[in-house]
Amino acid sequence: MTQRYCFLGNSHIAALKFGWDQIAATHPDVDITMFAAGGRNFENVVVKDKVIEATTEELRALLLNRSNGLDKIVLTDYDKYVIVGLGFDVVLMSRLYGNYHTILHSQPRPEEIQFVSIDVMAQMLLADLRESLSFQLARLIRDEMDQTIYVCWVPLKRKAMLHLDKGNNSAIVDAFTAIVENGDEKLVRALMTRIAALLRPEGIVLIEQPEETVEGEIFTFEELSKAGTTPADTPNPRALLDIGHMNRRFGSMMVKQIISATAGHA
Description:
By secondary structure, the chain is α/β, with parallel strands linked by helices. It contains 7 helices and 12 strands. The strands form 4 sheets. A 5-stranded parallel beta sheet has the order 2-1-6-9-10, with helices on both faces. Strands 3-4-5 form a 3-stranded antiparallel beta sheet. Strands 7-8 form a two-stranded parallel sheet. A hairpin with a 2-residue loop joins β3 (about 45-50) and β4. The chain starts with a strand and ends with a helix.
């Protein structure tokens, strides 16, 4: 029996779309429809009779253009729902890392830094993640369909970000540089694991990227990043500074991970 998937996401869905195009023929029992809109466009939706509809012409046009001519999401047409990107990103811990200390921190605690448990730090990070558009869409669909919703973490950044022009990513780069220098990569992974456990009772299952895509526990291998495989003489030099978007090879691996992670779930 064919499993019908509904993917909703922002620009991060592009890698999955290109990756799926490469492997779809090897998964004849899987059908995936992808709905993509960048920025905060997915804020502009309403649900009527299990149908997600755009409330702005901009979002409706984006869906028409990027989702095989569909301008609304009929939830009953799908068996499983997967949210991709849309701000559910572990880099949000950059706001917390230098201000709190846990038992998993590798270095001694400075006197002025407050000690908290892993659970408390995870709850603080989760509070920020709950504000993401990803989580809001997951709750919207969960309330309407009363079944498990799958949320993919935004891909881990490419390690090259530590050596690039910081630009608007200054806080993220500084925090993750400190994490690496202090040897606190395991703290990041522990928080991700704890947050997954906290959300599961709410009917939200988090999906991490495949382990074979992960470098040094908290980064994505350079050869799987979009910028890492962009020619140096690209007409758009800014593309080489992209720290978070991945390529189709990553996308195909991620889609396989999603299919595997959702197998057997209602």
